[in-house]
Amino acid sequence: MFAYFKKKHLLCKMNSLKTTIGSLLSALLVTLFFLSATENVQAQGNSLRPRSEVERVKSTKATESSLLADRVKSSLETALVDSILLRLDAEESHPADELYDSWNTEYLKAYAGVEIPETFTIDVSEFVMPVEGRVTSHFGYRSRYRRMHKGTDLALHTGDTIVAAFDGKVRVRSYDKGGFGYYLVLRHANGLETVYGHLSQFIAIQNETVVAGQPIALGGSTGRSTGPHLHFEFRFLGQEINPAEIIDFDELCIKDDFYMFSKADATSASQKYTAGASHAKKGKLKYHRVRKGETLQTIARKTGTTVDKLRKLNKLKKGAILHVGKSLRTS
Ligand SMILES: [Zn+2]
User: Fold this and answer.
1) Which segment, 28-32, 85-89, 229-233, 284-288, is predicted with the most confidence on average?
2) I need a labelling partner for 286 at 20 to 30 A (CA). Which of 150, 162, 228, 296 fits?
3) What is the pTM of this model?
4) pLDDT reported for residue 58
5) Domain shared by 30 and 171, yes or no
6) ω into residue 50 within 30 of 0, thus cis?
7) Is 195 helix (H, G, I), strand (E, B) or coil?
8) Is 322 part of any domain?
9) Are 259 and 294 part of one and the same domain?
10) Is 140 left (phi over 0), alpha (psi -120 to 50) or beta?
11) Ligand 1 center to 280 CA (angstroms)
């Protein structure tokens, strides 16, 4: 656990450092541009490079700055900054190695022993859309089926190419008759796992290392599916994440380079699922449509519950107006 926090903290620092270096470099380049312009005007035909030491001693303030700029240009701009950035990239590229301690090729849900950090910043900057289809079903609780839909469905034609969302490795390549059909689970260096369901054909093999955008399968409609589509999931240490929090499905790109995972948000989503599932099992989920003249008191009496419970179930504040025709949950 401690290692995750340490790592996360390090990541945040490195990212801000990287950003800082980036802005400093930009500022430097702008300065260099103006300095070079000044320099050229003042030089008027004289050979500017190389400069002798004598020239440097006699130089005006402006040319001294130009010299400094030249030095910075050759050292910082090319060698130093490049190496710093490269080193930062290399160090932050494999959080998955520390997050997961097992590699199970049989099951999607193989997260025994993982510790879920309270928050974790995930680098999603290298994301590639697995297939460029419109959303046919969003992530969330499906009251019609009384179960959670843990991914986003994207329209496609059977045989369309599905590509890897990030660099990673194929963990599960399997078949789930009553659910995903033919499906793949990829684990990525950034700590995320992605799930691709209802495939018609595999391209990638188990344990294969893939790069973002590499074809991994062909789309289809296998398993529990009503038509060709890709069921696409993001998971972090087994916790499902709403893909719409990371991807802008209208623009087909990521919303931000970094996604902040929050254990609290993930837990509340799964509690919602559990609550829905248990109600579905017991058949206890009941609703009452508000009629004219009814109050919370009369509805509570009619449905055998209490005003407090109705308020809680429907998130009603004191003094909230009951609109005729509104559906209230009563159990
Ligand atoms: Zn789906």
Assistant:
1) 229-233
2) 150
3) 0.58
4) 43
5) no
6) yes
7) strand
8) yes
9) no
10) left
11) 19
